[in-house]
C-alpha cells in the first residue's frame, strides 16, 4: 500500500492521490507510517506523499495532515526509531510546518505545551520543531482563534510562551527548551520572561546539568537581557557557596546530604569557562558583566562580589580587551573594601547601623583555595592580580630614602593591607599550583634586581616565605637564583642583606648555589664600590652563621631557622663537618682582608662577629685572635704610657679630607661582648692544646681591658689633646679630627663601663672605676655639647649612638633602682650618689627606645633578635614604671633644682616610646608584655581575656599621676609631662576592648578631666581632646560633643555681631580663651569632617542599594523606603552637626586656618545635604513624600545655617578690607608687607565662592524635591531671615 501511495505521489497531479488517501482511514494511514518507520525503512517518500495528498486548503486534508504530523512527533519521541529515521522525519516535519494554517499551528503548539507540562516527552528530540511552529505562527497575518477569542499570530505566540513559562518544566528537557527559544524571534519582554524561567529552574537540576544549561542560556542571552542572565548565574553560585560553607562549619552530618565541595568547584570551573567563551564571542556580555559588578561597588560590595564572581573576573582577564578594566575593577574593589573596614572599625555609630560583612580578601583567598580543582583559567589571573597589588601598593620611598615598615594591624593603612593581600595570594598560589611556581619565582627575582632603587622589602618577605615553604622546589630554579647573585655587587646593601637572608635555607640544600654565591662574594670583596664590599661582608657573615662546625653549641640561641622538610635531604652528609670547618676558616681568611678596608666595611664585620660566635661557637678561637691582633695595633702595650690608645692611627687624612680609618669603639665593643660570651659559655669540647691556646687569648684580652680601664681613668683630656681649648669646629681639618677622636674616646669609655660593671660582681672598687669612666665620658660629652651649642651644626651622630647593649641597660637600671640586696647596697651607693650617672643610664634606655620605635630594632649585640630584645624591653619597662610611679616628678623636682630633665620625666618619656614601639612591632606579644609589667591578674585567667584587665590597671596608674599633676599648684604644672601622660594613656586605651566597662570608665574619666580642669597649655589641651574624641567615637557618635564645644568656643570668642552680648556656656573647662582658637576649634572642625565623611559614606551606600533594588518598572510598585533606620541616623547626625556649625559661623574666629577650614567644612556640609536631597529625589516617588524629620532638617538649615553663612562671609570680607587698610597705612613704604597681607587675605577668601555655589546647588535640588514630593520643603530655604533668637542675649 505504501508503494501505491508513493507511486501516486509521483504523478503530475495530486487528484488521484487525494482520492486514495480520503478512502483510507487516518488511523490506518498513521499505522502504516509507524510500521514502516519502526522497521527502519526510509519513511521519507511515504510521509512526503501523505503531505502532498493532504492540502491545507481542504478541511479533511488539513486534519489528516495534523493527525499524521502529531503521530510523527510521538514516533520521534517514542525512542523506537533509528537515529537516521528520526532525523529524516524531523527534517520533513520542519519543512511542512509553515504550510499549516494558524489554527492548526496553535493546536500543535498547545500539544507541545501540555506535553511539557505533563512531562510526556521522553527524549525531547521533537522539541526542535517547537521554534519552527512558533515562528510560523508569529508570521501569520490573519487572526487566529485562541481560547475564547481571536488573536493575531504574534499575540498567540506571546500567549503560548507565557503559558509555557508559567507552567512546570520537566527537568529532563530544561536544556533543550532553553535551546529552543534561541531560534524563536522574541520581544524584549518575552526574552526576560524566558530568562527568569530558566534561572528559576537552576535550583531544580542536578549540579552536572547546570553547565550545559548555562551555555544555552548565554547563547540565548544574545537576544537581550544579558545582565539578568549573568546576575542570576552569579547569585545562584554565590548562594550555593554560602550553603556549602554554612554546612561545613555546622553539623558534620549535613555534609552527606549536601553537594560535595569538589563536585561544586568543578562545575563552577566549567561554568566560568562557558561564560568566558561566550564573552569572547559576544563582547556586549563582557561589558554587562563589568557594569553589573561595578554597580555593586556603589552599594553593598557583598551583594555582587563573591568568590564565584571574583574567579569569573580573573578568568575574563584572558580576554585581552577586558584585561585592564577587570584588574582596575578588582583593585578598586579591594581598596574600597579595606577602606570601608577601616571606617567601620573606627566608628561605633557606623557599626550599629551597618552589619559586618566578609572582607574581599577572605573571598579572594578562598578563590585561591578553590582553584586547586583544575581552575587553570583562574590561576594566571590570580598571579597577575597578586603582582599588581604588590607593585601598586608596596612601601613607597620617603624623603630620606628610608621606608618604615610596621607590623601592627592598628596602624596599617588600606593600601598596606592590599599589598599584604597580594603577597598572600602569591604565596598560597605557589603552594597549590606546581605549574606556576617557576613563573612566580622569576617575577619576584626580576623585581628584586630591577627595582633596587625603590623599597622591595615586601618582595623579599614573599621570597623568604616561599623558600621557607619549599627550599627543594627552588633547586629546579637554581639557575635563576645564581643569575640573581651576579647582580649582588650592584644592589643596595639592605636589599643584599634581605635577599641573602631569604635564600639562606636554599644554601643548605644546594651546594651549587652556595658555591656560586661564594664566588660572587669573593669578587665583590675587591669591587671598587664601597657598597659591594659591604655586601660581601654581609654575605660571608651570613654564611658563617649558618654553616655550623661540628661541636658548636646547639643551645636555643644557635637554632637554625630551617624547617624539617629540608633536614631529610641535608646534603651535608656528603660533606663531613670537617669540610664545613675548612669552608668556615676559608671565609674567615677572606674576612680578615676586610680589616685593611674602609671604616664602614670594618664596622659591618665587627657588628657581625658576635652573632657568628653565638651561632658557630667553634670559630671562637679564630674570631678572638683576629680581634685581639686588630686591637693591639691601636693599643699602647707599655703600662705607664698615657693615653693607652693610639688615636692618631684611627684617623686617616687624604689631602684635605679627614675620615675615620678604624672604628676602634666598635672593635673594642665587639671584643668585649665576644669575650663575655665565651667566658659564659665556655665548654671543654676542644683539644687540650687548643683549649689552652684559647684560654691564653681570653686572658690576654682581659689583661688588655683591665689595663685600658686603669689608664683611661688616669688619663686627662689633655692627654688626648681634647680639652676645652681644642678646636671642635666642623669646618677645619683639626676640628673634624678632634670630633672623631672625642667620639672614639666616649665610645671606649662606654664599652669599658659595661665591661667593668659586668665583671664587678658588685665590688665597690669596680663600681668606683665605672663612675670614674663615666666622669671621663661626661666631661667630653659636655665639651662637645657646649661647642655644638655655639656652632650652627650638631656634632656627628656617632656620639648619639650608645655602645651599651640592651641587656646591659636593663641590668644596670634594675641594679640602680630595684636592687635592694643588703650586700650590694654599699657598692651601688657609689653609682646612686651620682645623679648624672643615674640620668645617663635612663637617657641611654630612652635612646634605645627611640631607636626601637623608629626602626623596630636597636644597635648592639642581640639588637636584631626579637626574643631577647623583647625580654630586655620588659625588664626596662618594669624598672622605669616603678621609678616613675614611686618617685613622682614633683617630689624629685622639689628636692633638687638641676638643669636638664628630671629622672622621672626621662622615665616617662622612655615609657611613652616603649609602649608605642611594643604596639607597633610586638603586637602579638602584648599580653606577655602586660603580664611582665606585673599587673594583678587572677590565677588561671586566660592570657587573652586579661589584656583589657591588665591594660586598665596600667591606665589607672597613669590616671593617678595626671590627676596629681593637675591638682598641684598651677606654677608647678609641667606641660611636657602632662602631654606625655596623655600620649601614654592614648596608647594604652587602644588595648581596652571598646565594649568593656574599663573602656567606658576611661571615657567618662577623660570627659570629666576635660570638663573640670582648665589649663592654658595648648599642646596638652590638644592631646587630651584628641584622646577624648578617639575614645568617644568607639562608644557613640561625637556630634553632641561637637555641639557643646562649639557653644563654648562661641561664648569665649564672642559674636561676629559686636552688639550681641554673649552668655558664656561652660561645658568644658578645658576650653579657655587661649585654647579655644585655633587649638580646640581646629579639633572640632576635623572631627566634624570625619562625621561628614561617615554620613557621606552611608548616603552613597543607600543610593547604591536603591539603584540595585529599584528597577525602573518596579519603582512605581515600591511602597516603603529601603532603609529607614539608616536614613533616620543620617538626618539626626546632620541635624546635630548643623547646630554645631550654627554656633561656629556666628563666632568671631581669628583669621587663619580656623576660618579657612570652617568654610571648607560648611561647603562639605552643603554638598552632603545636596546628596541627601538627591537620594530622596530617587525614592520619593515610591514612598509618597519625604519623611517628617527630613523636612525638619531642611527647615533647620534654612533658619539656622544658610542666612548665617552669608553673614559670616560678609564678616570675613569686612575684616579682610580692614586689615588690608591698616597694613597699607602702617607699611606705606614696604610693598612686600602689603603683598603678603594681600596673599593671606586672598587665601582665606578662596573657599567663599565654593561655599556659595554649594548652597545654591542645595537650594536648586530642594526646589526639585519640593515639586516632586508636593511638599513645602523649599519654603524654608533661602529666606535669608534673621535666626529666631540671635543668641542667648542677657
Automatic annotation (TrEMBL):
Domain named FANCI helical: which ranges? 284-370, 555-784
Q: Where's the FANCI solenoid domain?
A: 64-280, 378-541, 803-1028, 1041-1270
The keyword Coiled coil belongs to this UniProt entry's keyword annotation: yes
FANCI solenoid 1 cap domain segment(s): 1-53
Name its GO BP terms in alphabetical order.
DNA repair
According to the UniProt entry, its GO molecular function terms are: DNA polymerase binding
Q: Which Pfam families does UniProt cross-reference here? A: FANCI_HD1, FANCI_HD2, FANCI_S1, FANCI_S1-cap, FANCI_S2, FANCI_S3, FANCI_S4
Q: Where does the UniProt annotation place the signal sequence?
A: none
Question: Region (Disordered) spans which residues?
Answer: 1269-1290
Biased composition regions of type Basic and acidic residues, renumbered to the chain? 1273-1290
* Keywords assigned: Coiled coil
Q: Which residues form a coiled coil?
A: 687-718
Query: PANTHER family from the entry?
Result: BC025462 PROTEIN, FANCONI ANEMIA GROUP I PROTEIN
What is this protein identified as? Answer: FA complementation group I
Q: Which organism is it from?
A: Suricata suricatta (Meerkat)
Gene field: FANCI
Amino acid at each position: 500500500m505504501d508503494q501505491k501511495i508513493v507511486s501516486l505521489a509521483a504523478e503530475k497531479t495530486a487528484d488521484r492521490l487525494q482520492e486514495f488517501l480520503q478512502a483510507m482511514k487516518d488511523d490506518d494511514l498513521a499505522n502504516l507510517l509507524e510500521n514502516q518507520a519502526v522497521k527502519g525503512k526510509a519513511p521519507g517518500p511515504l510521509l512526503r506523499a501523505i503531505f502532498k495528498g493532504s492540502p491545507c486548503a481542504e478541511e479533511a486534508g488539513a486534519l489528516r495532515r495534523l493527525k499524521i504530523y502529531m503521530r510523527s512527533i510521538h514516533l520521534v519521541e517514542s525512542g523506537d526509531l533509528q537515529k537516521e529515521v528520526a532525523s529524516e522525519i524531523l527534517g520533513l516535519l520542519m519543512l511542512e510546518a509553515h504550510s499549516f494554517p494558524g489554527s492548526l499551528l496553535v493546536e500543535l503548539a498547545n500539544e507541545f505545551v501540555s506535553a511539557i507540562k505533563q512531562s510526556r516527552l521522553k527524549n525531547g528530540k521533537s522539541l526542535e520543531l517547537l521554534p519552527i511552529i512558533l515562528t510560523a505562527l508569529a508570521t501569520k497575518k490573519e487572526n487566529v482563534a485562541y481560547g475564547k477569542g481571536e488573536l493575531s499570530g504574534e499575540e498567540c505566540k506571546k500567549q503560548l510562551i507565557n503559558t509555557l513559562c508559567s507552567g512546570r518544566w520537566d527537568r529532563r528537557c530544561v536544556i533543550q527548551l532553553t535551546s529552543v527559544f534561541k531560534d524563536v524571534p522574541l520581544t524584549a519582554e518575552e526574552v526576560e520572561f524566558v530568562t527568569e524561567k530558566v534561572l528559576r529552574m537552576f535550583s531544580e537540576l542536578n549540579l552536572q546539568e547546570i553547565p550545559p544549561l548555562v551555555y544555552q542560556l548565554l547563547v540565548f542571552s544574545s537576544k537581550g537581557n544579558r545582565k539578568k542572565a549573568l546576575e542570576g548565574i552569579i547569585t545562584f553560585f554565590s548562594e550555593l557557596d554560602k550553603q556549602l560553607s554554612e554546612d561545613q562549619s555546622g553539623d558534620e552530618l549535613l555534609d552527606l546530604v549536601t553537594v560535595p565541595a569538589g563536585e561544586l568547584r568543578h562545575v563552577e570551573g566549567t561554568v566560568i569557562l562557558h561564560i568566558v567563551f561566550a564573552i569572547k564571542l559576544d563582547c556586549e556580555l563582557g561589558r554587562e558583566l563589568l557594569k553589573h559588578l561595578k554597580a555593586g561597588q556603589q552599594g553593598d560590595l557583598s551583594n555582587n562580589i563573591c568568590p564565584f564572581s571574583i574567579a569569573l573576573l580573573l578568568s575574563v582577564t584572558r580576554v585581552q580587551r577586558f584585561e585592564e578594566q577587570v584588574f582596575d575593577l578588582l583593585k578598586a574593589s579591594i581598596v574600597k573594601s579595606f577602606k570601608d573596614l577601616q571606617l567601620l572599625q573606627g566608628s561605633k555609630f557606623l557599626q550599629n547601623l551597618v552589619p559586618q560583612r566578609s572582607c574581599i580578601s577572605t573571598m579572594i583567598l578562598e578563590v585561591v583555595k578553590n582553584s586547586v580543582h583544575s581552575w587553570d583559567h583562574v590561576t594566571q589571573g590570580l598571579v597577575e592580580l597578586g603582582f599588581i597589588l604588590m607593585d601598586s601598593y608596596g612601601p613607597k620611598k620617603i624623603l630620606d630614602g628610608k621606608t618604615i615598615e610596621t607590623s601592627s594591624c592598628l596602624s596599617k593603612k588600606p593600601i598596606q593591607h592590599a599589598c599584604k593581600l597580594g603577597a598572600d595570594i602569591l604565596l598560597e598560589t605557589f603552594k597549590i599550583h606546581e605549574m606556576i611556581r617557576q613563573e612566580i619565582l622569576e617575577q619576584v627575582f626580576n623585581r628584586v634586581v630591577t627595582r633596587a632603587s625603590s623599597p622591595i622589602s615586601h618582595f623579599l618577605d614573599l621570597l623568604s616565605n616561599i623558600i621557607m615553604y619549599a627550599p627543594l622546589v627552588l633547586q629546579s630554579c637554581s639557575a635563576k637564583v645564581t643569575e640573581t647573585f651576579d647582580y649582588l655587587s650592584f644592589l643596595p646593601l639592605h636589599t643584599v642583606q634581605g635577599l641573602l637572608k631569604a635564600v639562606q635555607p636554599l644554601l643548605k640544600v644546594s651546594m651549587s648555589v652556595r658555591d656560586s654565591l661564594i664566588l660572587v662574594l669573593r669578587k665583590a670583596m675587591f669591587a671598587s664600590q664601597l657598597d659591594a664590599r659591604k655586601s660581601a661582608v654581609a654575605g660571608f657573615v651570613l654564611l658563617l652563621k649558618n654553616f655550623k662546625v661540628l661541636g658548636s653549641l646547639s643551645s636555643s640561641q644557635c637554632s637554625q631557622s630551617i624547617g624539617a622538610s629540608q633536614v631529610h635531604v641535608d646534603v651535608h652528609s656528603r660533606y663531613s663537618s670537617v669540610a664545613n670547618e675548612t669552608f668556615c676558616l676559608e671565609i674567615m681568611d677572606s674576612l680578615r682582608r676586610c680589616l685593611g678596608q674602609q671604616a664602614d666595611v670594618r664596622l659591618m664585620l665587627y657588628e657581625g662577629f658576635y652573632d657568628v660566635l653565638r651561632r658557630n661557637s667553634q670559630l671562637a678561637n679564630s674570631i678572638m685572635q683576629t680581634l685581639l691582633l686588630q686591637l693591639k695595633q691601636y693599643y699602647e702595650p707599655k703600662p705607664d704610657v698615657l693615653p693607652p690608645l693610639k688615636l692618631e692611627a684611627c684617623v686617616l687624612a687624604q689631602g684635605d679630607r679627614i675620615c675615620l680609618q678604624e672604628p676602634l669603639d666598635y672593635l673594642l665593643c665587639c671584643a668585649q661582648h665576644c669575650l663575655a660570651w665565651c667566658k659564659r659559655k665556655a665548654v671543654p669540647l676542644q683539644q687540650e692544646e687548643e683549649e689552652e691556646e684559647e684560654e691564653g687569648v681570653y686572658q690576654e684580652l682581659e689583661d688588655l681591658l683591665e689595663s685600658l680601664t686603669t689608664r683611661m681613668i688616669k688619663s686627662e683630656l689633655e692627654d688626648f689633646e681634647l680639652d676645652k681649648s681644642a678646636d671642635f669646629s666642623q669646618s677645619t681639618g683639626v676640628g673634624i679630627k678632634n670630633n672623631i677622636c672625642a667620639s672614639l674616646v666616649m665610645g671606649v669609655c662606654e664599652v669599658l663601663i659595661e665591661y667593668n660593671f659586668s665583671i664587678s660582681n658588685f665590688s665597690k672598687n669596680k663600681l668606683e672605676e665605672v663612675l670614674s669612666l663615666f666622669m671621663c665620658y661626661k666631661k667630653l660629652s659636655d665639651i662637645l655639647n657646649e661647642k655644638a651649642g655655639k656652632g650652627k651644626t650638631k656634632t656627628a651622630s656617632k656620639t648619639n649612638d650608645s655602645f651599651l647593649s640592651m641587656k646591659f641597660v636593663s641590668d644596670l637600671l634594675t641594679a640602680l633602682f630595684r636592687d635592694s640586696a643588703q650586700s650590694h647596697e654599699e657598692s651601688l651607693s657609689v653609682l646612686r650618689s651620682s645623679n648624672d650617672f643615674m640620668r645617663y643610664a635612663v637617657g641611654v634606655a630612652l635612646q634605645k627606645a627611640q631607636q626601637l620605635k623608629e626602626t623596630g630594632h636597636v644597635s648592639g649585640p642581640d639588637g636584631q633578635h626579637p626574643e631577647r630584645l623583647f625580654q630586655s624591653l620588659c625588664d626596662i619597662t618594669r624598672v622605669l614604671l616603678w621609678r616613675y610611679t614611686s618617685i613622682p616628678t614633683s617630689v624629685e623636682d622639689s628636692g633638687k633644682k638641676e638643669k636638664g630633665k628630671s629622672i622621672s620625666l626621662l622615665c616617662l618619656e622612655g615609657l611613652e616610646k616603649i609602649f608605642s614601639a611594643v604596639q607597633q612591632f610586638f603586637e602579638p606579644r602584648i599580653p606577655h608584655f602586660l603580664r611582665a609589667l606585673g599587673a594583678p591578674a587572677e590565677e588561671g585567667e586566660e592570657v587573652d581575656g586579661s589584656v583589657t584587665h591588665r591594660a586598665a590597671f596600667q591606665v589607672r596608674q597613669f590616671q593617678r599621676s595626671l590627676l596629681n599633676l593637675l591638682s598641684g599648684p598651677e606654677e608647678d604644672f609641667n606641660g611636657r609631662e602632662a602631654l606625655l601622660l596623655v600620649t601614654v594613656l592614648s596608647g594604652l586605651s587602644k588595648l581596652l576592648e571598646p565594649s568593656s566597662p574599663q573602656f567606658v570608665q576611661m571615657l567618662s574619666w577623660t570627659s570629666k578631666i576635660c570638663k573640670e580642669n582648665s589649663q592654658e597649655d595648648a599642646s596638652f589641651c590638644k592631646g587630651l581632646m584628641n584622646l577624648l574624641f578617639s575614645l568617644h567615637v568607639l562608644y557613640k557618635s561625637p556630634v553632641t560633643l561637637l555641639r557643646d564645644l562649639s557653644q563654648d568656643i562661641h561664648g569665649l570668642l564672642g559674636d561676629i555681631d559686636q552688639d550681641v552680648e554673649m552668655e558664656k556656656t561652660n561645658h568644658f573647662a578645658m576650653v579657655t580663651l587661649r585654647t579655644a582658637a585655633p587649638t580646640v576649634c581646629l579639633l572640632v572642625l576635623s572631627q566634624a569632617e570625619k562625621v561628614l565623611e561617615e554620613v557621606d559614606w552611608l548616603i552613597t551606600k543607600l543610593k547604591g542599594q536603591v539603584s540595585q533594588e529599584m528597577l525602573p518598572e518596579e519603582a512605581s510598585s515600591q511602597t516603603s523606603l529601603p532603609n529607614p533606620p539608616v536614613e533616620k541616623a543620617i538626618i539626626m547626625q546632620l541635624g546635630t552637626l548643623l547646630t554645631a556649625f550654627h554656633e561656629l559661623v556666628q563666632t568671631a574666629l581669628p583669621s587663619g586656618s580656623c576660618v579657612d577650614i570652617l568654610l571648607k567644612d560648611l561647603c562639605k556640609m552643603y554638598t552632603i545635604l545636596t546628596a541627601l536631597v538627591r537620594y530622596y529625589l530617587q525614592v520619593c516617588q515610591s514612598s509618597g513624600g519625604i519623611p517628617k524629620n527630613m523636612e525638619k532638617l531642611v527647615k533647620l538649615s534654612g533658619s539656622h545655617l544658610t542666612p548665617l553663612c552669608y553673614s559670616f562671609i560678609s564678616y570675613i570680607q569686612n575684616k579682610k578690607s580692614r586689615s588690608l587698610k591698616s597694613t597699607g597705612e602702617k607699611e606705606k613704604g614696604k610693598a612686600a608687607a602689603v603683598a603678603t597681607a594681600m596673599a593671606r587675605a586672598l587665601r582665606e577668601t578662596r573657599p567663599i565662592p565654593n561655599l556659595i555655589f554649594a548652597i545654591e546647588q542645595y537650594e536648586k535640588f530642594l526646589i526639585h524635591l519640593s515639586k516632586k514630593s508636593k511638599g513645602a520643603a523649599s519654603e524654608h530655604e533661602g529666606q535669608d531671615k534673621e535666626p529666631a533668637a540671635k543668641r542667648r542675649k542677657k
